[in-house]
Design brief:
With about 80 residues, the chain is mostly helical. The protein is built from four helices and no strands. The protein has helices at about 5-15, 35-50, 55, 65-75.
Length: about 80
């Protein structure tokens, strides 16, 4: 499991107001809106001191995918 996965899951759940979310569940289908994705992007970038290219972020649909991208960019 990616070391940041649990933290990222918690951030997504908190910002999306979700009671639960699986690491491989599409967070947009779970209830995160496109409006909530900007604060999500900003919080992840701040938390991990990275810059995520918009074209990469728009491809992300799950916490596991986001965790892997953060790991890649944070390395």
């Amino acid at each position: 499991m990616e070391s940041n996965l649990l933290e990222i899951l918690a951030i997504i759940k908190q910002l999306g107001g979700l009671a639960s979310l699986d690491a491989d569940q599409d967070f947009y289908e779970a209830g995160v809106s496109s409006v909530q994705s900007l604060p999500l992007l900003m919080q992840i970038e701040d938390e991990y001191s990275i810059s995520i290219p918009d074209e990469r972020f728009t491809e992300i649909r799950t916490a596991r995918q986001l965790s892997a991208l953060v790991g890649e960019l944070h390395a």
